[in-house]
């Protein structure tokens, strides 16, 4: 709970206000008991008339209203505190995912991770809205009651003092169990939502292979597992309330027995004192019990907080960017680049090359030779394990992140389309005139497609909109590049399945970009490879050759085999 306590202490002003409220509440609780006892005493023992006690009844009503208002006020302060802390956590998560979104999206499932983490943030609510106000009330009110009980009757005070510690002791044991269970709950929620998302995304493949029933069963198992963990937490909560009730009943019973004996058998105390204490003792235990249930929710928040902190720490591992300003033109050099994946044996080793400032560089190699990895390292999506991408003679990460990403365009094999019109998808929020967007879509070969759409470039595409083919999506991404006019364009050429016309469109558009930018292409097509100004030849993560097509044909057996194979495939 440490990190939560630290956060709570940042809300100092509200903390002090809660203490003041708790003190006034203590006085009000004691006054309420005192008034009830006085009214009963006056009415039944001092034989006063109803008229005589009416003013006291009004005072009692006032006290009751004040008590309700104070509880409301402390709850409200707690809710405000919770809202502020939750907002802070959401901000930190958004920052973390936002800053490292490129890396994180390379790892996949950012959306589902984010939604689970935001659920976890909501779980923090009960710590601030319930536990903190109740803990403050419980540190103040029972202490005030205990002092009053001691001042009235020492033995009753001693009974309370001896029995009360069982409650926090019990709470601590149950609390630890709850925290563990709540961490389990988050884990199974994460597993459940991850599996659910995977299955939904891959539904088509599963159906085609007749495996949807099997995966339905897996989802069911995972959802049952989540239900069982949630039920487990509830079970602990119910058992703990039962035990707390039992302990406090036992203590109140003991005090009542002792008071009864002294009042009736030994005649040592007055009815007023006995009744007064008997009204105060349940208030004492009520406050402890309420802390018990608030503690339970607080513990489950604490489990959630630890998960979030862990996640935030992980995300911080992303690359740190510098403060240097990047000015055009941009020249890129690869200086002894190495990259190791944590989860595989693949290694990109000692990549050394000077790339031209303008023109087309093709990265060529067998499947799995590290072409996409190299492209991602150049893009700044993967931080090299050693060596550097040098940009204008300085290390890439010395530049401002914003500067670099405003200078590059990345056209992946499956560009992401947001829900919105084609025009919005091309401009991506950057202010651009209608003419500029039209020009970019024309350069990317989209004009013909747009003409066939009912609302032209105002047709909604993406999730819930009109679907686009792979080649069309890449053309939208190309149009983004034409509009952005980046110095470096990274292009992951589609490996399969484009019709000749689309392929021609893409090729022509890319050629246009090579006139003004450095275009680095993971190249598979013969036409692209032959047309490249410079080729980087990769094999098993190593740069085994570089030069023009003709140079490599003349010098590399590996290149000749690869090129002939690709040619054969395309002719088939
Ligand atoms: N995120 C990852 N984590 C671990 N290993 C990875 C990851 N991405 C790729 N690899 C491994 O790195 C190696 C190189 O992959 P990469 O995608 O760079 O090759 P490629 O040359 O682009 O292949 P292809 O032409 O088939 O797309 C492969 O062996 C792959 O299994």
From TrEMBL:
Pfam families: ABC_membrane (PF00664), ABC_tran (PF00005). The chain crosses the membrane at residues 16-40, 52-73, 236-257, 263-281. SMART domains: AAA. Its main location: membrane. Residues 20-300 form the ABC transmembrane type-1 domain. Residues 332-565 form the ABC transporter domain. Keywords: ATP-binding, Cell membrane, Membrane, Nucleotide-binding, Transmembrane, Transmembrane helix, Transport. One of its GO terms (biological process) is cysteine transport. PANTHER family: ATP-BINDING CASSETTE SUB-FAMILY B, ATP-BINDING CASSETTE SUB-FAMILY B MEMBER 6. This is ABC transporter ATP-binding protein. It comes from Halalkalibacter okhensis.
